[in-house]
Specification:
The complex is a heterodimer of chains A (806) and B (221).
Chain A: H1 2-15, H2 17-45, E1 57-66, E2 69-73, H3 80-87, E3 91-98, E4 104-108, E5 111-115, E6 118-121, H4 125-128, E7 133-136, E8 147-151, H5 152-159, E9 168-171, E10 174-182, E11 195-198, E12 215-220, H6 226-230, H7 233-248, H8 255-260, E13 264-271, H9 272-278, H10 291-322, H11 324-332, H12 337-374, H13 389-412, H14 416-420, H15 432-464, E14 474-477, H16 487-496, E15 500-506, E16 517-521, E17 531-539, H17 543-546, E18 551-554, E19 567-571, H18 572-578, E20 587-591, E21 597-606, E22 621-625, E23 631-636, H19 641-655, E24 663-665, H20 666-672, H21 675-709, H22 711-719, H23 724-758, H24 769-796, H25 799-803
Parallel strand pairs in A: 6-11, 8-10, 17-22, 19-21
Antiparallel strand pairs in A: 1-2, 1-12, 1-13, 3-6, 3-12, 4-5, 7-10, 8-11, 9-10, 14-23, 14-24, 15-23, 16-17, 16-20, 18-21, 19-22, 20-21
Chain B: E1 2-13, E2 16-28, E3 33-37, H1 44-51, E4 59-64, E5 67-68, H2 74-84, E6 85-88, H3 100-110, H4 115-128, H5 144-156, E7 162-166, H6 174-189, E8 193-197, H7 201-204, E9 209-214, E10 217-218
Helix pairs in contact in B: 3-4, 3-5, 5-6
The chains are: A alpha+beta (806), B alpha/beta (221).
Chain lengths: 806, 221
């Protein structure tokens, strides 16, 4: 029996090739989108869960407000971990990671390679974050100073073997003993290190509760409520932090005093498994993702799957009407209702199953593309992972059942004689459910179109907004400290090259990087009330000129003034926080940890420029004259960039033999800040297009169905003198109405969603009405095109055929 | 009024040609009432459709009111029959979603007649056919005879010169059929040219003229 069902099903599919193709393709695209996004979401949710004690590991975060400046840090002070373990029995273990030194030069033969995934860690690191060991062992690996644990990748790179335990490697010209080689950390970890050096090598002003530089992770005993544990931080503040703070600030008697002066120092715990999606702090060990993406993607996936299923149902229903006659004959021949239902269900299940196979093939081929868009490295194999497989099998069964049920029950209910006479029109027409489904499909499409346009506008706005500095045609040479004393020589040599206009050597550039704040005050004696927390960048004479910034008051640093070594140029924001009417000429003081006070004279105000992403407001900043050779930037003016870079590299090779030469362009560095948004844009565009395609396939099917339902009416109207445009208008009108209703519902939803998204940006566009009009217009146009193809076909048909009675 | 000369219509099935109409010559004068008879499949309906310009033919000439139909484009042809021809069907072919009033009104809408004029014209014909009381009913609420009455009213609403009826009484009982045929006769007396296709000798006798068709050919005239 079942074989017979499938035989008929296959023949039917084949007979209506076009129809089947549309139906299967629509569902396959929908399923493929859904599988891709499900993979993405599962991957996002899997971060850091592979550590055996993942649910008990927490990071100690700090929230600091000081001198009008708000900091949300992922780091805490160096004694925090030890003190927590000593004073609180709930803390089973702690470990600290020190990543503030940034990249280091590692020697390979005569060559030095710049390694970025390099940190210091306590020996307890492997107790909390156990790693798979390839050679050596990790238990005691970091006990001794001058020891390092390296990844498999690093071992292969530097020793050409994974069996590198016991060998020696030069890091920043110091020999380290490799005590263990570990497997590369899984991609779904929130950090990936190639080198983990012993914490004992860190040169640091230890036991300082006021400096926050260590990523501190604690392992709580089983059953400890971390929210309750967070209350203990008040005690830590009173017992340890306050006594140290008193030494620096006069008039500070309690933490309450500190808070009353509008400042803040709070600690909290961040669960390890939440870091990847919920932590938007500073400095993160790696760029994190955002739970927003997970929500957006999940919603899109569900909607697309729904649209696809709705289509499938609508198309199956539409097609089954054509088979009313077959049903009639079968009934006359004695087929029971049950058999008919089984036949229809097996047909739609077969179709759904073919769609699933096609979807898997689609997924397999589009996964690399999707990985690219979503910045992931998921493998096609994970589709068949144990948690996903049952779901995959259930999907076509459910879709098939849903899609098959309606026509199955509807058709099998007919009285055979009525069906044979072709009288089955009643009850099929004005169907509110079907109209509702079409409205839903277009609602989704329109929301996606609006979202896409607004994301695009915001990104365009970011790219073209006046940043306060010129980002084009600026070439950045990183790691210039490798030049040592040759840095000035190198800079001057490059300046001689044709096409180089000016150059500057500095510590920071106005693209986001890890930076620290310092505290300054208006008076020589610091008290919390007159403190100003401000970034200070060491720059040279050519900085402001090279980067095209503007002095709006006072003057730039100049060689004509011998006193500029104690001068500072503030940005507008810093000047505003200080509150002087005319800040130029006023003094600013800084107290270093050893108690010495330095004073600076304000010589100028630079126009505010964006040095963080446009998501954030501009913070107070001071530029100071000095020698910091981490980055050299050149303003260039040439179309022939390649040969110029080659020439610069030659100079570098001559002056810093063996040292890695790395360069980038400022506009690229700038664009990198918005990768996440660009990703959202691409994803939104892709899925908006797919959603519309699927929705249109459905609409096409519905119009076909509708036209079939109204063949007789169309014929009669034609005989009565209706023209083709008359009929097309008649057939399209109803659908246009539905799309219009969908627009009206979509507008507020899209507005709310995009308004929420834009709140992430301190600098953002306003949502304009024409975006909505455009989206509705696009949807209407596409719908109209889809509908009219079929409507014209129906209207052109010869009425003689449809009106024949015999 | 109309003249068919050497009309052929065929379909090709494989390499075999089946003739639906074969060398049909027919002249219809104004005011005539013609009945086309013949067994099933003899080409009656096809001939009627050709006359009504709903169907095309492969060979021959067709002149209608001094227009050469075979030379006209689709659009002109449809304009022609819209103006001069009314159709009545065996299965009435009323639009189920529209009321009696709206069904009758439909042809006028497609002829771009003003709404106020339409009202007057529909009111006139409802009155004439004595179905004013039924104007707000839907076709399914009417008996077969009443539905056909509405069908005829709809065919006549635009004042055609020629009425084509394809077995107008085929779905009716004899009493209802008689009423319809009497109506046709009366219309013919008032000057309407009518061509009907029928199976029934009795109904054919209402006409002034009978044409017998067999296998697409006219047998006698």
């Amino acid at each position: 029996m079942i074989r017979n069902y499938f035989k008929i099903a296959v023949r039917n599919l084949w007979k209506n090739k076009g129809f089947s193709a549309i139906n299967i393709a629509g569902l396959a695209i929908g399923l493929a989108c859904f599988i891709l996004i499900a993979l993405f979401v599962m991957d996002e949710l899997s971060y850091d869960r592979f550590y055996p004690d993942a649910d008990r590991i927490y990071r100690v975060d700090a929230d600091i407000k000081f001198g009008g400046n708000n900091l949300n840090l992922t780091v805490s002070s160096d004694p925090m971990g030890p003190v927590l373990k000593k004073d609180y029995p709930q803390v089973e273990e702690y470990t600290r990671i020190y990543a503030s030194e940034g990249s280091k030069l590692v020697r390979k033969g005569n060559e030095y390679i710049n390694e970025e995934k390099i940190v210091y860690a306590d020996s307890t690191f492997f107790n909390i974050f156990p790693q798979k060991v390839v050679s050596g062992e990790t238990k005691t690996a970091l006990f001794e100073p001058n020891t390092v644990v390296i990844s498999e990748t690093a071992a292969k790179k530097y020793f050409s073997t994974v069996d590198a335990a016991g060998k020696t490697i030069d890091i920043d010209k110091k020999p380290f003993k490799v005590t263990a080689v570990i497997k590369d950390m899984p991609h779904n970890s929130h950090f990936h290190f190639d080198f983990i050096m012993s914490m004992k090598n860190v040169e640091y002003d230890w036991n300082n509760f006021l400096s926050h530089n260590f990523h501190t992770y604690i392992l709580l005993k089983k059953g400890t409520d971390y929210h309750a544990f967070e209350k203990n931080f008040t005690q830590v503040l009173d017992n340890y932090v306050l006594p140290q703070a008193k030494q620096f600030m006069t008039g500070l008697n309690s933490m309450d005093d500190f808070r009353k002066s509008g400042n803040k120092l709070d600690y909290s715990l961040m669960p390890l498994t939440k870091i990847h999606l919920y932590s938007h702090r500073f400095p993160e060990l790696e760029a994190n993702s955002n739970i927003q993406f997970v929500y957006i993607f999940s919603a899109v996936a569900l909607f697309i799957l729904l649209i696809a299923c709705i289509n499938f149902m609508n198309l199956s229903t539409a097609r089954s009407v054509n088979r009313a006659k077959e049903v009639g004959i079968r009934k006359v021949l004695g087929t029971g209702k049950k058999n008919l239902i089984a036949q229809f269900l097996s047909e739609s299940a077969l179709m759904a199953f073919i769609s699933l196979l096609l979807a898997l093939v689609l997924t397999y081929f589009t996964l690399p593309l999707f990985n690219n868009i979503a910045a992931k490295s998921m493998s096609a194999g994970s589709i068949f992972s144990s948690s996903f497989l049952p779901f995959l099998i259930a999907l076509p069964v459910i879709v098939g059942l849903l899609a098959g049920l309606y026509p199955a029950f509807f058709l099998s209910r007919f009285k055979p004689i009525a069906v044979l006479k072709g009288k089955i029109n009643a009850g099929f027409k004005k169907n509110t459910l079907r109209s509702g489904l079409v409205v839903f499909q277009f609602f989704t499409s329109i929301v996606l179109i609006i979202g896409t346009i607004i994301v695009y506008q915001q990104l365009h706005f970011i790219q073209n907004t006046n940043l306060g500095f010129t980002k084009d045609q600026v070439l950045i040479i990183d790691d210039a400290y490798a030049l040592n004393k040759n840095d000035e020589v190198f800079k001057n040599a490059v300046l001689q090259l044709p096409g180089v206009k000016s150059g500057t050597m500095s510590g920071y550039l106005p693209v986001n990087s890890s930076r620290t704040d310092n505290t300054y005050s208006r008076e020589a004696v610091m008290d919390p009330k007159n403190a100003l927390s401000m970034q200070s960048w060491i720059v040279d004479y050519d900085y402001i000129n090279t980067l095209g910034m503007k002095i709006i008051k006072g003057r730039d640093f100049s060689k004509d003034f011998g006193t500029d070594s104690n001068a500072v140029i503030l940005n507008e924001t810093a000047a505003k926080v200080l509150g002087y009417e005319d800040p130029v000429g006023k003094k600013l003081f800084r107290q270093s940890p050893d108690g010495k006070t330095t004073s600076y004279t304000i010589i100028g105000i630079v126009k505010d420029f964006h040095f963080e992403s446009l998501r954030q407001n501009i913070y107070p900043l001071g530029l100071m004259l000095g020698h910091s050779n981490s980055i050299i930037s050149f303003k260039i003016a040439t179309a022939n960039i390649k040969p110029l870079i080659q020439q610069i590299q030659n100079k570098w090779k001559a002056l810093a033999p063996g040292m890695p030469f790395s360069y980038r362009f400022m506009d690229d560095a700038f664009n990198n800040m918005y990768r996440a948004e660009q990703r959202v844009e691409k994803v939104a565009i892709t899925f908006a297009i797919l959603a519309i395609i699927i929705a249109c396939l459905g609409l096409f099917g519905l119009v076909t169905y509708m036209a079939e339902q109204r063949t007789k009416e169309i014929g009669v109207r034609k005989v009565l003198g209706a023209s083709v445009p008359n009929l097309v208008a008649m057939l399209s009108k109803d659908f246009m109405k539905l799309v219009a209703i969908a627009s009206v519902i979509a507008f507020p939803v899209a507005w709310w969603g995009m308004h929420t998204w834009l709140q992430d940006f301190a600098y953002r566009i306003s949502i304009e009405w024409w975006v909505f009009a455009l989206a509705a217009f696009i949807a209407l146009l596409i719908a109209l095109l889809t509908v009219s193809v079929q409507a014209i076909k129906a209207a052109m048909a010869n009425p003689v055929k449809s009106l024949r009675t015999e | 009024m109309l003249e068919l000369k050497g009309i052929y219509k065929w379909v090709n099935t494989g390499n075999h040609r089946t003739f639906l109409l074969k060398d049909v010559d027919l002249t219809v004068k104004e005011g005539e009432f013609i009945s086309i008879m013949g067994p099933s499949g003899s080409g009656k309906s096809t001939l009627l459709n050709v006359i009504g310009m709903l169907d095309e033919f492969n060979e021959g000439e067709y002149n209608f009111l001094n227009e050469s139909v075979h030379k006209l484009k689709e659009k002109q042809r449809s304009a022609l029959y819209k103006q001069y021809i009314g159709f009545v069907f065996q299965a009435y072919h009323l639009i189920d979603e529209l009321t009696v009033y709206e069904n009758i009104e439909t042809p006028l809408i497609y002829q771009n007649i003003k709404s106020s004029d339409r009202k007057a014209m529909v009111a006139d014909i409802l009155d004439r056919f004595q179905i004013v009381g039924k104007k707000d009913l839907f076709p399914t609420q009417l008996s077969g005879g009443q539905q056909q009455l509405v069908g005829i009213a709809r065919a006549l609403i635009a004042n055609p010169k020629l009425l084509l009826a394809d077995e107008p009484t085929g779905n009716l009982n004899s009493k209802q059929g008689e009423e319809i045929m009497n109506l046709f006769k009366q219309l013919n007396h008032e000057g309407m040219t009518i061509i009907q296709v029928t199976h029934s000798e009795k109904n054919a006798a209402y006409g002034s003229h009978i044409i017998n068709l067999l296998d697409g050919m006219i047998q006698n005239n």
